[in-house]
Amino acid sequence: AGSAEVAGHDVVRDGLAVRQSIGYVPQAISIDGALTARENLEFYGRVTGVPRRERGERIDQAVEAMALGTFLDRLGRTLSGGMLRRLEIATALLARPQVLFLDEPTLGLDPTARRMVWDRLELLREEAGTTILVTTHQMEEAERQCDRLAIMNLGSIAATGSPEELREQFEADSLEDVFTAATGGTLEEGGSFRDVRATRKRSRRLA
């Protein structure tokens, strides 16, 4: 029961408008390793319906936003984890989304690559006014980067608020302590073997 809106559009009645308003970057690698970074951007521009006359300009803007210029002509399978994440975010920006959804955007990245990804996202938020929704298990990232947080426990929202509000509510010194208190210290089961195998199969496109 209930309703939900994204960028002012009802998710049930205005599904097309919602899809045109959002960008999404999955946790699993979605870049085609057999294509160059430029070719991946051109492909995503076509499949997301970016008008041909605007495609070149939008690709240039996405490249600039994510600082991709130095490796545009390299194959996807030769890119580092940080480069791949920035390229994936760039593909999601081609449709000029009002809301950008990122699923574990820095998973598996070293500190330098994580910082680069967040630097570009901060710039995007400041210059384009893009709303960014992130799922992450990195509490220090959540505290540093997010205005508001929703802590999930077994598929339900256990607590919401700003980092400061949550620490005050749970009388905790850190978000790690907040998370433990809000979830009762429970552990969510990981994905099934089938889920893991499917993720690995998708990732093989980079090999």
Overall outline: globular
CATH superfamily of the largest domain: P-loop containing nucleotide triphosphate hydrolases
Helix content: 40-55%
CATH class of the largest domain: Alpha Beta
Beta-strand segment tally: 7
Q: What is the residue-averaged pLDDT?
A: 88
Q: CATH topology of the largest domain, what is it called?
A: Rossmann fold
CATH architecture of the largest domain: 3-Layer(aba) Sandwich
Q: Widest sheet: strand order? A: 3-4-5
Gyration radius, rounded: 18 Å
Q: Please, how many helices?
A: 9
Number of domains: 2
Task: Give a quick rundown of the structure.
By secondary structure, the chain is an alpha/beta fold. It has helices spanning 15-21, 37-47, 52-65, 81-93, 111-128, 139-145, 163-169, 175-183, 193-203; strands at residues 5-6, 9-10, 22-25, 99-103, 131-135, 149-153, 156-161.
What's the structural blueprint in terms of helices and strands?
Blueprint: E1 5-6, E2 9-10, H1 15-21, E3 22-25, H2 37-47, H3 52-65, H4 81-93, E4 99-103, H5 111-128, E5 131-135, H6 139-145, E6 149-153, E7 156-161, H7 163-169, H8 175-183, H9 193-203
Parallel strand pairs: 3-4, 4-5
Antiparallel strand pairs: 1-2, 6-7
Helix pairs in contact: 2-3, 2-4, 3-4, 4-5
Task: Describe, in plain words, how this protein is organized in 3D.
There is one protein chain. The chain is an alpha/beta fold and 207 residues long. It has 2 domains: 1-135, 3-Layer(aba) Sandwich (Rossmann fold), CATH 3.40.50.300; 147-207, no CATH class. Helices cover 47% and strands 14% of the residues. The chain has 9 helices and 7 strands. The protein has helices spanning 15-21, 37-47, 52-65, 81-93, 111-128, 139-145, 163-169, 175-183, 193-203; strands spanning 5-6, 9-10, 22-25, 99-103, 131-135, 149-153, 156-161. A 3-stranded parallel β-sheet has the order 3-4-5. Helix 2 packs parallel to helix 4 (81-93), helix 3 runs antiparallel to helix 4 and helix 4 (81-93) runs parallel beside helix 5. The mean pLDDT is 88.
